[in-house]
Amino acid sequence: MSYFDNKVPPKREDRLKAVIAHNDSICGLALKARGGKGCLIDDGDRGFTQGTICLLLPALAMLNSLPDNVVLLHSALGCGSCTHSQNANVRMGSNARWGKAKDGVWLSTALDETDVISGGEDKLARAIIEADRRYRPASITIVAGCVPGIIGDDIDGVAQRLQPQVSAKLLPVHCEGFKTKIWATAYDAVYHTIGRNLLEEKGVTDYAPQDEFEVLREQERLAKTVNLMNVSSMGRVDEQELERLLESLGLEVNVFPVFAHPDSFVKATRAALSISTCPTHDDYFLGYLEERFGVPSIIKHMPIGIENTSLWIRDVARVFGFEEQAERLIASEEAELKASLEEFRPLFEGQKVFVSAGEFRALATARLLQEIGLEVVGIRSFHHDHFAEVEYDKLAREAKSDYVVDIANVQPFEEANLLNRLKPDLFLGHANGNMTAAKLGIPTHVIYNTGLAYIGYRGVYEIARRLHRQLSNPAYNRNLAENLKLPYRDSWYQAEPFSYLNTRGRSVNE
Amino acid sequence: MSENFVERARYLCSLGGAAATVTALPGGVPILHSASGCAGNFAWTQNGGSGLQVGGYCGSLTVPSSNIGETEVVFGGEERLREQIASTLKVMHGGLYVVVTGCVPEVIGDDIFAVVNDFRSEGVSIIGAATGGFRGDSYWGYDLVLQALVKDYLAKGIEKAKGRVNLWGVVPYMDPFWRGNLEGARRLLELIGLEVNSFFTPADTLEGIQAAASAELNIVASDLYGQGAARLFEEKHGTPFVTAPLPIGVSASEEFLRQVGAALSLDEGLVERVIAREKKEYYQILDPLTDCYNDLDLQRYAVVVGDANYAVALTRFLADDLGWLPALTVVTDRVQESEQSAIAGRVGQLASGFATNVVFESDGSQVLGHLNRVWPQPAGQKYYNSFSPAFVVGSSLERELALQIGAPHLSVSFPVANRAVLDRGYTGFRGGLRLAEDLFGAIVVNR
């Protein structure tokens, strides 16, 4: 039985044994990986926690990007208001692809006290019908937040019941925030609805070309078409870099699923290969595409950094027997890039850097930073699972010291403590995760922003260029540090940074 | 307006408004008792709607949060909250800790006040407010935090001090211009000799807030926001309140001063002297614009879209101060019918004599439909009195409307995604000049 036969995807704690509260070091993690123990690290809890995001936010980042889609949040009023920020990505993304900036459309059933008592299914049903009539979208994604998860509204049942009455494709998505601590489950939640609702009914069978020549052409094309998975952490500029590299190998690229029209999703089931840029994003769905539609996939390296980009290209080339072409491409790209980076090296050499983001992003970026001459002195990953072991190994090989790895779903208090001890010269963090370092006076750059380039060889150069800018004049952050205080007690900076981490078998809070 | 959904809500839930409000208090540390994602959702919302303002002393993802999950849904979250408060006191430095709740603990029935009161009885500066997201919007969350302050933080039984007032009605971050607007309104009141406690600006202190019951009057610069707290304040501390519209520009500021002056029985001569002096200055500054205002034909028809505060204040400013023609005013809050007439009445009788049309519509995509009803499209006639030249004053979501009707546009009301705001404000005489600058600037930007 496939996971996709169930209404709700499993959470990652169960499926991948992913953890979010752990203190380790780069060598410790690499050792565990090599020892074949996989991800059998005890997970824990914290006795002090700060706010973070839930799976609803990354899920909406994907859903809001879908053209001709209405996002209908079934929850209390506030859930999904994050779209006010994601809307910038929707506008820039549509402008980059179609030359026209367009706002997303998102609605809320705004469950109130009455609905909490008497249930919200009827309200949801009326909202679906009205949204279908008013906006005439190709799809309506019905996204459940915490409240329906507790009061027991059946969004799948409502969608199934109403589907015959509306013209939009109804896509229920489960984002009940309290149900999982690993918000990467967001990707599974969205892919789950795509897998259940958008692929199966069309499948491979109803493609009926007119004549034999066209059949041949189509077969030839499909034999070279690859799905390039983007769950919204890459902007158009990064897609273009990967398209450039893949096309120079003679491949045709189908970027999927962000900014992809629901009708075009079926194309994904006929490709020759699916290529992930990040195992944290795609493993759940690629397993399904392979199992059900026979589309093989590669899910290993993230094409961030020189070595990783080259490894990523080699893996793809091997599938098609393009190894020689790939080696020529890699050699010329690497030579050109490395020569261009020389200009920045003098300022980078020996500078210490702390990296913080989603696990794979943080690790691949840390590797990139090593490659351009910086010394990594600490990493904070939002969660940990076994996919990253290959990256820990790469980093450990090049590490100058056995530095700390903090597994934490944000938790800036641990970061403030660590940064105060390590005093890095540079910090890279996830969006909305840079203010701690900034207020400590550390030059800071964002590790993820869909308007900027990060991926491939071009990404390496652009990151280096931006970091060079930051280091050339860190006055903004220095001024902040001289005049602002973080909200932590002085005693907190003296305390052990993992004081509030209770892993199993560890004493409480001491 | 839809009965079944809210389109692109221009606010957050009550928890979102409450958390932002606590963040804006001097030394305020919010403690969220909620699922883990609420804080991130608010941070991203402000990131995209509050004129690039996220964070503050203890905001964004820094806020302590109990991050309750399935375990607490089954077994209750009070023990987790107790642990979280105890550890927060050890890690975070704050002047006032405020526990605010999200949907999950409220649905499962956690009694946060039992937990909060245990800490209070040990002398901890902590209060709580039940702000579960399904209770209402962020403006109501602001009101709930003020109510908690009134009930559990303000010193009781203190003597009223002559000339001391509290100023409410401007909601931090939900009004991206909150700092500037509070400061502008405070300066107005200071002009007539009052001592103003505005709660959220760098000039305010927790000591001042704790002594807020010494005020002889509460001034609520909003028909909706902070009204509940003002009523509770009167009941608990015997301080009356006046409700005034957000005083943007010269006409509204004049009336604001007269209204407050009358409520406090201030010397009328003093109030009039102040008004005369400020108006003289205002028009002296406006004077050099006159040639261009006329030469460039800067008078505009206008559509105003905004929350209950801005929709009224902007309409009035455009009509009475600038001499524009705001033919359609759209209030995007979900205002109960019983409260609609008070808001509509504010622009029902404009001093300029210009008559606007007020619509209560929470769905911004419906504004064009309302405009077409108010100002019908041409039916092929040769001569047609068109809705042009026009201007759209609203939020950044009105950019598409502005494109459709070919008008320049300025984002003032939440969400403001396309402007950076620090301390710019539109209240007071000077605020009116700022707004005029921004409006005219948007018209001539390509000149």
UniProtKB/TrEMBL annotation, chain A:
Q: Which GO terms describe its molecular function?
A: oxidoreductase activity
What positions does the domain Nitrogenase/oxidoreductase component occupy? 54-470
Q: Which InterPro entries does its entry note?
A: Nase/OxRdtase_comp1, NifE-like
Q: Which domain of life is it from?
A: Bacteria
Q: Do you know which Pfam families this protein is assigned to?
A: Oxidored_nitro
Protein name as it appears in the record: Nitrogenase alpha chain paralog
Supply the source organism for this entry. Citrifermentans bremense
Automatic annotation (TrEMBL), chain B:
Domain Nitrogenase/oxidoreductase component: residue ranges: 13-442
The organism's place on the tree of life at top rank: Bacteria
- State any single GO MF term: oxidoreductase activity
A Pfam family (short name) is Oxidored_nitro
Q: Which PANTHER family match?
A: NITROGENASE IRON-MOLYBDENUM COFACTOR BIOSYNTHESIS PROTEIN NIFE (PTHR42956)
Protein name, entry field? Nitrogenase vanadium-cofactor synthesis protein VnfN
What organism does the UniProt record list as the source? Citrifermentans bremense
Query: Taxonomic lineage of this organism?
Result: Bacteria, Pseudomonadati, Thermodesulfobacteriota, Desulfuromonadia, Geobacterales
